[in-house]
Design goal:
- GO terms for molecular function: chitin binding; hydrolase activity, acting on carbon-nitrogen (but not peptide) bonds; metal ion binding.
- The chain is α/β, with parallel strands linked by helices.
- 26% of the residues lie in helices and 11% in strands.
- It contains eleven helices and 17 strands.
- Strands 6, 7, 8, 12, 13 and 14 form a six-stranded parallel β-sheet that branches. A five-stranded mixed β-sheet has the order 10-11-5-17-16, covered by helices on one side.
- Helix 4 links the parallel strand 7 and strand 8.
- It starts with 7 loop residues before the first helix and ends with a helix.
- The N terminus is likely disordered.
- Bound molecules: 2-acetamido-2-deoxy-beta-D-glucopyranose.
- 2-acetamido-2-deoxy-beta-D-glucopyranose (NAG) binds next to helix 2.
- The site of 2-acetamido-2-deoxy-beta-D-glucopyranose has 10 residues, from helix 2.
Amino acid sequence: MRLRRPFTALFAGSAAPIALVAGHSLENDGPQQRPTVVKRAGAGAGCGPSAGNAICDAGLCCSEGGFCGTGGAFCSGPACQLSYGPGCDGNQVPAGTSTSNTPRPKFGNVPYGVDISHCSVKGQVALTFDDGPYIYTPELLDTLKRNNVPATFFIVGNNAGKGQVSDPTSGYTPIIQRMIADGHQVGSHTWSHQDMNAITPQQRRAQIINNEIALVNILGVIPTYFRPPYTRCGADCYQLLGELGYRVVNYDVDTRDWENGGANSKSVYQSIISQSSPAVSQWLSLAHDVQEFTVHSLAQFMIDTAKNLGFQLVTVGECLGDPPSNWYRDPSTGQPRDARGATPPPPQRVPTTSSSSTGKSSSTSAPKPTKIAETNFRLDAPPITTSGTGGNTTSSRVVSSASSRAGSSTSTPGVVSTRVPDIGGRRAVPMQEYIPATRVGGSVTLGLVLGLACMVLFWAGG
Ligand SMILES: *[C@@H]1O[C@H](CO)[C@@H](O)[C@H](O)[C@H]1NC(C)=O
C-alpha cells in the first residue's frame, strides 16, 4: 500500500527544538540536525518560529502570536505553540494513571485505524457533537433526553482554556458522566484540539494518551472511537490510532454550524438526509456542542427532521453495528468494557499547574463551568490563518489540504481506497476509507460518486 506523507516538511520545522529539549533526536534527520544553542525566552519575549524558534522558560506559554506569557490568551489550546511553550495547556498531563501501557486488542467488526465516514445500518442517523463539553452541553443533554435520543460526543479534554475536564474544579466531570448515564456514546477528540498533522509524533501520542487519562479518571474506561480535529489525520496519524485501538470516525453530513452562526446548517442537513429514503440510506452528522446555536436550535431541528423522514437516531457505535461493550476498553486489561457500570478511580487533585485564566474560583462546592472567550475554540473548521486569542495576529499557519487530496491506492477487503468527497462539504486527507459492506451494494451516494467520476474521466478523455 502506498501512503502519502505530505506533512514531512511541517514536522521538520517543529521537531528540531523539541529534539534538543528532550536530549535525543526524533524523526528529523535532515541537514539542519546540527546541534544549535536553544534560544530561551522569558515572559513578554518573543517565541516560536517568528522569534528564531526561541522556547519560553519553564511554566510559560508561547502564544499563537509568538509571545511568552501566562493565562488563557497565551496558554489555551490549540492556539498555544506546544513546541515553544512548556506551559501550554496542551502540554499539561492530567493526574492519574497513564494509559500508555494499556494493551490494545482489537475487538468487534468495525475496523481500526481507517477513515470511517458512513454509518452502515440503514434507516439510522447518528448525531455527533465535537469539541465540548462546554457551558451549553447540559442544555443539549436535556434536549436529547426530552426527545429520548442518544447521540455521540467527541470530547476535548483541555481546550480553549476551559481547564482539564477531569479536574474536579472544572465542573465538566459530572457532565461527561451524565452522557454515559443518559445512554450517549463518548469518544475522544484529543486533549487540546491540535491539528494532528502539524505536531511531532510525541505530541500526537500525548494528545491521545492525555485525553485517555482524563476520561479514565471520569468514566473508568478508554474510548475506542476517535475523531481527529479538523478531520486532519495523515498516514502517521492513522497508523498511530490503529496501534492505540481506535476507530476513526469522520462524517458524511457536515452542518458547518461554526459558519455564519449556522445560517445554512439546517438547510444543508435537511437537503442531505432527505435525498433518499431510510430504506436505502444512513447518515453520520457533525455539529458542535460549543456552539450556542447548535444547542438552542439546530439539535432539535436535526432530531425532528430525521424523525419526520422516518429515521432512527442512534449513536455512532450503534449505526456501525457495534455493541456498547466495544465502544470502550478497560484501562488495565484493554478488553471491551461497557462504560455503564464501570467505576472511575477516586477523584485526584490536579496540581495547580494550570495557567489558564478561566475565572474559576478554587471553591470546592459543586463548581460550574464558566463562560470563556469563544474565539478560543477552534472548531473543526478549515485551518486557521487569522488571529485568535488576545487580539494578536498570528504568523501564518496555513496548512494545505486540497493539494494532498488526490490519489488512491489499496484494495483490502472492507477498506476501500476511493476518496469519496463528502456531500456535506470539506473533507481532509483520508488515507483509506472504510465503507461498510452493507453500504457498498445499495449505496445511492457511492453510485452517484462513481457515476460522476466516470463522467469526469470520459469528459477529460474526450
Ligand atoms: C500581543 O502582542 C504584544 C506586542 O505587540 C505582546 O506584548 C503581547 O504579549 C502579545 N500577546 C499575545 C497573547 O501574544
